[in-house]
Design a protein that fits this description.
Elements lengths: L10 E2 L8 E2 L3 H17 L1 H24 L6 H8 L3 H4 L1 H12 L5 H10 L4 H28 L7 H10 L1 H25 L2 H7 L4 H14 L1 H19 L6 H19 L9
Antiparallel strand pairs: 1-2
Amino acid sequence: MPDPETAATTEIPAKTAFPVVRKVTFADLADVLAKGWEDYKAAPQFGVFFGAVYALGGLILVSAVMLLGLQWLAYPLVIGFALIGPFVATGLYEVSRRREAGQELSWSGILTVVWNQRRRELGWMAFVMLFIFWVWMYQARTLFAVFFGFEGFATMEGFLHAVFTTWNGWMFLLVGHVVGAIISMVLFAVTVVSCPFLLDRDADFVTAMITSIRVVTSSPVPMIAWGLFVVVCVVISALPAFLGFLITLPVFGHATWHLYRVAVAPPGPSQT
């Protein structure tokens, strides 16, 4: 497969000082996924660690809503929790960056880089993700109130029965998935390469989001397909008590670094 620095064939020049983005092909996506798997195999301890942190967070949140009698929130919570995955994978981007540069991989080095992001623009990017996650959960609560009223369900069985056997339940699923897809697409567009971009460069988070959007709009079909593929894998990973994230989060995290390297050209003399 072509090298990330030269893989994309067509460069789309920026009208301002924004980085140059390059078209992404399906072959590029297959290549970055393979490289993500190679990074995971080369340093599995980091992948398992960050995957376990992510999985544990998901288990805690789902357990909390179940204990509070908010069973209906479990499904949107599981799907919405994936929205903050790009930030959780920051340490994985650093692992891939160091492997690419031939640098040493150490726990102290990786965790120090992750901790230091709180003072950089990546912290603002995390705020954007959490805000969209809040919007996601709020719309789920609003739609639940619209179709089922303000009374909850005593059991998960009762909720599932209402969702799958009533007209209101079907409409709740339909409208919820349409609205959720729109929110997910927005977040995907602004974050698909913005987190590794901010880790790698001294830039502001707005530039990172705009660059990420330009990556998606320059190659809409491959990038949308990539987003759908990630969503399917996330749903499957969450089913066995989030244990699938021990593999999928690190593989996609590493792959996202390589996708960034393919889609965004290195800084040139005219770029800051």
